[in-house]
What does this fold into?
Amino acid sequence: MDSITQAVLGAAVGEAVAGRQAGRKAALWGAVLGTLPDLDVFVAPFVSEAQALAIHRSATHSLFFSFVAAPLVGFLIARLHRKAGISWQRWSVLAFFAFVTHLAIDAFTTYGTQVFWPFSDYPVSIGSIFIIDPLYTVPLAIGLAIALWLPRTPRRRRIANYAGLAVSTLYLLVTFVNKQVAESAFKDALARADIPAERLLTTPMPLNSILWSGMALHEDTLYVGLYSLFDGNRSIAFERIPRHSDLLMIYQGDPVLERLFWFSRGYYTVSEQEGALIFHDVRFGRADLWLGGDGLYAFSFELLPEPGNPERLQDFRQQYVSFEIDRSLLERYKRRLLGNEGPQSQEIYPAVLH
It folds into this structure.
């Protein structure tokens, strides 16, 4: 999730665990510790991009880290606030739940979180909530704000914070139910279209859990469609996207390429630009919001061959592009979310980098 949500969640957890004893210090430390796992991004300048991709959301996002780091952090905070009279065990519990709730909410997104590191690098991805979702964050923030505004001891302070946590958690469960409904609709539509998909991935579209994208994989082709819970029927048109895996045959078995396969979980397409191969992770969508066009993919990586050895990869370089989403596209997106704009026509839009 985004850093603001992680900080608010951590602060709410800190308030719930130690707010009565530590006052606003508990929320402050909760916010700090709730964002601490994401500091793994700062290793990026010192490692290759392939290594950075493997490191992000691994060690600091694991249950192992939560159990090992929490007592140490709790001891350090207790030493820092000796006069507060709060045990290091209480601070440790606060740290543990700040860490665990961080990795838990990340696991509900599409990216993938290595919860079981170092025993497994499997990226847990429930994929039921977008990385920024106001309907999750706002109730949490309101409950926390009311709690921090009230004096330390009144019962209504704790009730306000608990209410924010309860509403946001309930919404998280709703997104999971919505995902099951959307997945069922995509499976029905694929069956009617006679597409024998080996795998299906459903992900929420930006800022909501009503409009969903579905990505089905069959042989070397992806079929991508949109479904809104407000749609009047389950008629879904799929856009056919060839993966062009043949372009990668020269690098078969290469560790750098295997890292991209691991990250994308097979939901990718490959394009050529000025002699370079570009690997697009389709899971994170396109600038056209799948509403039709030749939009840029949100996650794209240029493959970098070793100098003097074009059959082996040295690394990859992520392509950072700025998306220009105009008012017309936003209006179409709103209509599609509300079920007022029917499925798009079935066409092929190859990946293009401008």
Summary: The longest helix spans residues 155-192. DSSP finds nine helices and eight strands in the chain. The chain has a mean pLDDT of 92.
